[in-house]
Specification:
elongated; Regulator of G-protein Signalling 4, domain 2; 20 helices; mainly alpha; Rhopdopsin 7-helix transmembrane proteins; 2 domains; RGS_subdomain_2
């Protein structure tokens, strides 16, 4: 035990490494599953990149603990194997080399992980409390939050406070713990600021889970540090403490990862390939009435090309036919945008949270620069939407919709009337109207005598006795 406690390679060390490897595999699976299995198109904004950075920082955190705490038994011959490269602010290592300082676990590991969650909480605060998009971009805000970690690592890099066992003195551990807890406190502050919002997904639950596991991790790290500082000579304590540290880090990276904050629809997808997504559209996830559904009793659509296009598009069947034609022309973004704005209009004004969810979804999918289905609108209108002070405003997308309707009428609408999509749509409307007329006629036939189908064509037809045979039977009936 004493030998492997110093050099590494104890049985418990390999068990901890196996657990951490399994947690990373599960983490990668959760992150890439919607894109690989369900073929979800990825966004180009922070909704995609922040979860990716979380996975990156989680990998750094686990790897840094494995490298700095001597879990694997190998001789350290290179500078990159030093505990100063891998170890974090709270290190309990038995490495004998001291060269560079704590960059992987601190600024690129636990610090980056907490910073990403603070950015997500800040986004929720701006969107649902202030009802506007965040005033500062994520690629600027995230480095700003990470600056204290970088500054602290650079300062320790110059002072080199670690001893031959990679332990810090008490005068160093106190400010390091304060740095960790200050980030958790900031996360708690943002979470309390949005506590009153009735979220439709699991945002609050995920935030509190992240706070609990990160606080628990800090507590475990501090306890392990104190025990190892006091009892450096006890081998089993060294082995058990580093096992507990890596186990806690493995739990942390799994519990901390969340899709519901950045991409709510992806968080609703099952991890089973055979199961389709529970909600295919944001309208269905928000419970918008008749979202994405074709009603059997829907009024017959108008097929007159002389009618205004705005009136025709109000019908779901016509809108889907027109959308299919636009997609075949590789120009379906405008019609899809119209469809989702139409769904937004069904949400009452006194339900601002639902309206904000839908508005954010539309902005990320159609309005933001580089969006998956970016629509062709003027820069002025795009900036008006992105800089709005009320995401729940009922007229948020009206100007953009009017501009796109003008483009649709000038291009797609003229070609649609002569397309096979319109011909097929007319046939379907005609067949449905005929079927409804037949249903109305046959709906009153409560008796076989009123059936309009006679003879052998009637499935209920039976050979009824003729009049003559009827009379003969009566005559032959004994009285």
């Amino acid at each position: 035990m004493a030998g492997c406690a110093v050099a590494g390679g104890c049985p418990s060390d390999y068990i901890a490494v196996a657990i951490s490897l399994l947690s990373l595999i599960l983490l990668f699976t959760r992150a890439i599953f919607p894109f690989v299995v369900h073929k979800v198109p990825r966004t180009k904004g922070s909704g995609f990149w922040i979860p990716v950075i979380q996975v990156f920082s989680s990998f750094n955190l686990v790897l840094s603990l494995v490298m700095s705490l001597n879990f694997l038994k190998f001789r350290k011959r290179h500078w990159w194997q030093s505990c100063y490269v891998w170890a974090g602010h709270l290190v309990v290592s038995l490495s004998s080399e001291v060269k560079l300082l704590i960059w992987v676990e601190g600024p690129l590991g636990f610090g980056l992980l907490l910073s990403c969650r603070i950015v997500q909480a800040f986004h929720l605060y701006c969107i649902f409390v202030k009802r506007r998009l965040p005033p500062i971009r994520s690629y600027i805000f995230l480095p700003l939050i990470l600056l204290p970690w970088v500054a602290g690592s650079a300062f320790i890099h110059m002072k080199k406070p670690l001893n031959t066992l990679c332990h810090m003195g008490t005068q160093w551990i106190i400010p390091v713990v304060c740095l960790h807890t200050s980030y958790v406190a900031a996360l708690v502050g943002f979470t309390m600021a949005i506590w009153h919002i009735e979220f439709r997904f699991h945002e609050i639950k995920d935030l509190w889970r992240g706070i609990v596991v990160s606080t628990s991790s800090i507590g475990v790290w501090v306890a392990a540090y104190i025990l190892n500082e006091v009892h450096e000579e006890i081998g089993w304590l060294q082995v058990s403490s580093r096992f507990l540290l890596l186990l806690m880090a493995s739990i942390l990276v799994l519990a901390f990862f969340s899709m519901s904050i950045s991409q709510p629809l992806l968080s609703q997808m099952s991890l089973r390939k055979r199961e389709p997504p529970e909600f295919e559209t944001m309208g269905q996830a928000l419970g918008i009435p008749d979202s994405g559904l074709l009603l059997q009793r829907e009024p017959a659509p108008i097929t007159d090309p002389n009618e205004p296009l705005e009136k025709l598009l109000l019908n779901k069947r016509f809108r889907q036919s027109f959308m299919a034609f636009a997609d075949s022309c590789l120009a379906g973004e405008s019609v899809h945008f119209y469809d989702e704005v139409h769904e937004l209009g069904k949400i009452p004004v006194d339900h601002p949270v639902k309206r904000i969810y839908m508005a954010r979804h539309i902005i990320e999918k159609y309005i933001s620069a580089g969006a998956a289905m970016e629509v062709n609108i003027s820069h002025r209108i795009r900036q008006q939407i992105l800089n709005t002070t009320d995401l729940a405003h009922p007229d948020l997308f009206n100007t953009a919709l009017n501009e796109l309707m003008h483009l649709i009428k000038m291009n797609l609408a003229k070609d649609y009337w002569s397309s096979m999509f319109f011909m097929k749509f007319k046939e379907e409307v005609s067949m449905r109207s005929n079927a409804q007329e037949m249903e109305q006629v046959t709906g009153w036939n409560f008796s076989p005598r009123l059936s309009s189908v006679h003879g052998t064509d009637d499935p209920f037809h039976q050979e009824h006795p003729s009049k003559g045979s009827s009379h003969s039977s009566h005559d032959s009936d004994p009285r």
